[in-house]
Each structure stands twice: as C-alpha cells, then as structure tokens.
Specification:
The protein is α/β, with parallel strands linked by helices. Among the domains are: 185 residues, Rossmann fold, CATH 3.40.50; 106 residues, GMP Synthetase, Chain A, domain 3 (2-Layer Sandwich). Helices cover 32% and strands 24% of the residues. Strand 13, helix 12 and strand 14 form a beta-alpha-beta unit. The longest helix is centred in the N-terminal third of the chain and has 18 residues. It is globular, with a radius of gyration of 24 Å. The N and C termini lie far apart (75 Å).
Length: 562
C-alpha cells in the first residue's frame, strides 16, 4: 500500500538532492516517474514507462556501479546522454555517488563544447556512442578523461558499457546515497554563452535543494502532476517535485524545430498538466493550436524561460488553453534561478501599454526569499555591497540578486567570479546579473536589456529591449534588434529588422518609413535614424530566442560602410 503523498520534499541544505527521488519513491512507489519514447517498428515511436520505485532502484544500482568503477565523491563527470530513462537514472546516480556531473549544452557548437570540456577537465565521460566518437576524433577532454562509459555500442572507444556498469552495481554493496555537506560541489553547469564565452557555474548541494523548494512554492507544483519539459536540465527537477515526466519526441538541441503535432499528441495521451518551453517553442506550439483551432484541455500551467516572451505569443498561448490555466515567465540565469516571475493574468492592458511604450519587460516580483537591488552601472568589480550605488525606484541600473539559489563562483574563472560576485555584511553572496533593470514602486522588476549591449551615443544611453518593444508592434516585423555601431560614448544606434515573408520594393519603403515615424514618436528612440533589413537574425541554437546582437552589430557596421 502506498504511503500518502505529502505536498513537498523539505530537505535541509546539506541533504543530497538525490534524496528527493528516494523520498518520492517511498511515498508514491507505483506512480509513473517517466514516460519516455523508444523507436518502434516502421519508424513509429512508442512510449515506455518507469515508476518512482523502479527509477530509484535503477539509480541506486548505477550509483553502486559508478563507485565500483572509480567514479566516487568529487569525480567530475561529463554527461552526454539523450533524454530518456538512462539520462534520469544516471544523473541521479551521480548525485547519489557524490560525483560531480558536468552539463554542457550540446547545441552551443563543437568548438565551444571542446573548450568547455577542456576547462572542466572531467575525469570521467558518460555518453552515447556518437558523443564518444566526437570525444575520440575531436580530442575532447583528452588530457583529463580516464574513465569512459558508453550508452550503446562501444566501437572500440575504451572504458565500459552502461550495461557493464549496471552489472557492477548489481554485484556491489556500496553505500548510497553518499552523505554530503551543504557546500560540497554538486555539479558544474555551463552557461549557454549567448552573450560571451560559456562559463562553468559551480552548483553546491544547498543550491539544488533551494531550487526545488523555490520552484514548488513559486508555481504551486503538486505531486501527481504530469510535466512535458522541452529542455532536459529542467526535466531533472520533475522527479524531485513528484511530477510525472513525459520526455518529448524531439531534438532537445533544437526546440524551435519541434513538431507541434507530436507535442500535442503527447499532451493528450498523458493528460499533461505542466508544459515547460522556450519562447520559440511556445510560438511554434501556439501558432499550430490557433491554426488548427485546438484547445488544450489538460494543461493548467505553462512555464517559459530562456528569453523574454513576446506579448503576442502569450496571447496566442492563452487562446489555446482554458481560462483557469496560468502562463508563467520566470526570470533568472544559470548563476541564479529562479529570481522572479510574472503570470500572464498580471499582464493587463495598462501593463502591456507600458511595455510597448518602452518601459521595459516586466518580469514580476522577486520570488521569496530572494532580494533584488538596482545599482549604478559600472565596468568595475565590487567586493562588498557597500561599494555600490543603489538606484532609486524607477531608475535604470544593473540588476543584482541574493538568495538561497544564488551561486558563488565559476569553475576556474577567478576574474569572472570577481566581476560577478560581491558580499554583504551578513556574508551573503550577491550576483550581478549583467542585465539592466528597473524596480517600480510596487516592487516589480522590469528588464531593459543586457549591460554589455547598451548603446551609448554620448548624449544618452539606449537599452535594447526597451526600444525593441516599440518597433516589434509593427505587423510586418518578425522581430527587431537595436544595436550600437562605433565606439561606446560615440555610438550610432541602428535598428535591424527581420520581416515576415518577402516585401515588394513599395512595401519595403513603407515599412522603412513607418519605423522611422515610430522612432520619432517616442523619446527613447528619437536618435534612431538608420533601419537595416536583415534576412534572418543570428539566434542561440538552444532556445532560438536570444538574438546574437554582438554579431548583428558587426554586420550592421559592415553594411553601413558599404
């Protein structure tokens, strides 16, 4: 007989986060933890299921096998498995063994991926056959990697197979999970590198435990819910929160290219209640639902992160759901997540008008117990909070945050750590988000753009996201990007646009004129007098939402010279 389900796993900061899985397995052993796709006959995909008890036991087996093989407490281990049963089981097994998984988004590209692995210097590498082939041919972690585990055919890659690892675990009596301390390193998660070189963020066990508590509280997540996460790292929280995970049949590195029909079929088949996706994926899904006049009955919550979600995407998504469903757009970063959140129901006409008038993108109130401040923008590092100048309500500045999920360092990046982190009199770490924001009188945070992407003309400073919200209202635009050309302090603001379809010469002139008129109608955009038409913006591979403004600025500079 199952033990009645309690609402939340309330672990101390020093508890091994893998204990959340065991906790759920005790309380709902027969409940489904994962539905995952497998290739069937004639190219069809069939789903298999695994209960909480089965997943917990499998991860225990793998954890014992890891320890027998030499992957023990503190062993940095690159993990490159495709989403599915083994991905979840091995990930929790690494935690249980006290090892340190190294997670790198495979969508960042081969060259940055190699650089990240060289920096992390993992001793162990667990991956699918394809990942091991790349490791061998491209020299990934050549100097550091000693222990290899392959999911699939080994093909002479060395090490052992996942099947052999399981056998080692079945024959072992090693202790699981390994006890940990709050400050023990739990994982290294690399940033996407969308605005610079990817950095390895050091996560400690207390950070993961805090994230589980905060996510449950912020979004009122209940055990027994069914989740469709389209970004694998976020899926790892589902078992800890007691949710059933439905692994979608899609390429996780290219979410914007996901087949919406497959997603809808999975949602209907498993009665999904919670959907997590990037703005680009929600755009694809909502367009499909509106075009096909589909209303998703089971979904009561949609969470989107990775970039700001356009208002029109939110409105289309609302059309596809029932009235009691909520759409949440949390704000945060790999270094501190979640920071704040806002629901679609809060975006009334008045707030939308403020966003479209250039006030910024409202990202809601800080999630307790986070604290957020706005400080004067500076290119200098700060050791202590007292060295900063806090901006008054309504004034733009750099966003800094402290809270239980706020990480305190980067891996092997002392100068970056020094630039991004500062402490206060209570010994708390504050993280500089690298974003420009405004706190209003109601305690809401407004995102204005990246600090590094601000445009300084010498007369005034423009923030990209504030300006772009004004132009993005134009019906012929897919999106816009405001970039600076020239040396900061003497930059020329340039409006780059991506239009829908192919415009005639007459329509091109009309759009050009319309946008210049829009620029003159708002005080913050009056210095924008150059409009460039771009065939397709550079965007991040993972979310297909963050615009590569640095690359776009270089393109604009060349365009203006020609």
């Amino acid at each position: 007989m199952d033990i009645p389900v309690e609402n939340t796993w309330n672990a101390a900061d020093g508890t091994n986060v893998a204990g959340a899985l065991s906790w759920q397995a005790e309380r709902q052993p027969n409940a489904t933890a994962i539905h995952y796709p497998e290739s069937g006959s004639f190219g069809k995909v069939r789903y298999r299921s695994c209960s909480y008890r089965e997943l917990d036991r499998l991860s225990d087996t793998y954890a014992r096998g890891l320890q027998e093989y030499g992957i023990t407490r503190g062993t940095r281990t690159a993990l490159m498995l495709t989403p599915g049963l083994e991905f979840f089981a091995v990930f929790f097994a690494l935690f249980k063994a006290g090892a340190v998984p190294v997670l790198i988004d495979p969508g960042i590209g081969m060259k940055p991926l190699k650089a990240c692995l060289a920096e992390a210097a993992p001793k162990a590498f667990i991956g699918v056959t394809k990942a091991h082939l790349a490791r061998k041919i491209l020299g990934w972690a050549r100097e550091s990697c000693e222990l290899m585990i392959t999911a699939g055919p080994k093909l002479g890659m060395g090490g052992i197979s996942l099947k052999k690892l399981r056998k080692l675990g079945e024959d072992s009596s090693a202790e699981v999970p390994q006890p940990v301390e709050p400050n023990d390193m739990a994982a290294i998660l690399f940033t996407s590198g969308s605005t610079g070189v990817p950095k390895g963020v050091v996560y400690r066990h207390r950070h993961f435990n805090a994230q589980v508590r905060m996510l449950q509280s912020a979004f009122n997540i209940q055990p027994g819910e069914v989740s469709l996460p389209t970004f694998p790292p976020f899926a790892l929280f589902d078992p800890a929160l007691g949710m059933t995970t439905v692994v979608p049949d899609m390429d996780p590195t290219r979410p914007a290219e996901a087949d919406p029909e497959k997603l809808i079929n999975a949602i209907r088949k498993f009665k999904v209640t919670n959907v997590f996706g990037s703005p680009a994926l929600l755009n694809t899904l909502s367009n499909y639902c509106v075009d096909k006049k589909i209303r998703i009955e089971s979904v009561t919550r949609v969470i989107s992160a990775g970039a700001a979600v356009p208002i029109r995407t939110i409105r289309r998504m609302q059309e596809s759901l029932y009235q009691d469903a909520e759409i949440h757009t949390p704000y945060g970063a790999t270094e501190c997540l979640p920071v704040s959140s806002i629901s679609a129901t809060e975006l009334d006409d008045r707030m939308v008008d403020k966003i479209e008038s250039g006030d910024g993108v409202c990202v809601g109130r800080p999630i307790e117990p986070n604290q957020v401040r706005i400080i004067k923008i500076s290119e200098m590092p700060f050791r202590h909070l007292s060295e900063t100048t806090e901006m008054p309500f309504g004034m733009a500045g750099e966003i800094i945050v402290t809270g239980p999920s706020c990480t305190d360092s980067y891996w092997q990046r002392d100068s970056d750590t020094e630039m991004a982190k500062l402490t206060d009199d209570e010994g708390r770490t504050w993280h500089r988000m690298g974003d420009v924001g405004i706190l209003d009188g109601q305690g809401r945070l407004w995102y204005c753009g990246r600090v590094s992407q601000r445009i300084d003309t010498g007369k005034e400073v423009l923030f990209a996201d504030q300006c772009e919200a004004i132009f993005n209202q134009h019906p012929d635009l897919v999106r816009s990007a405001v970039v600076g050309v020239g040396t900061r302090g003497r930059q020329t603001p340039v409006l780059c646009i991506e239009v829908k379809g192919k415009l005639s010469p007459v329509d091109t002139e009309r759009v050009h004129f319309d946008l210049l008129q829009l620029a003159q109608a708002h005080s913050i955009t009056r210095e924008i007098r150059t409009v460039l038409f771009h065939p397709g913006f550079p965007v991040d591979i993972r979310h297909n939402s963050k615009i590569g403004r640095e690359e776009l600025a270089r393109w604009a500079a060349k365009k203006m010279k020609s």
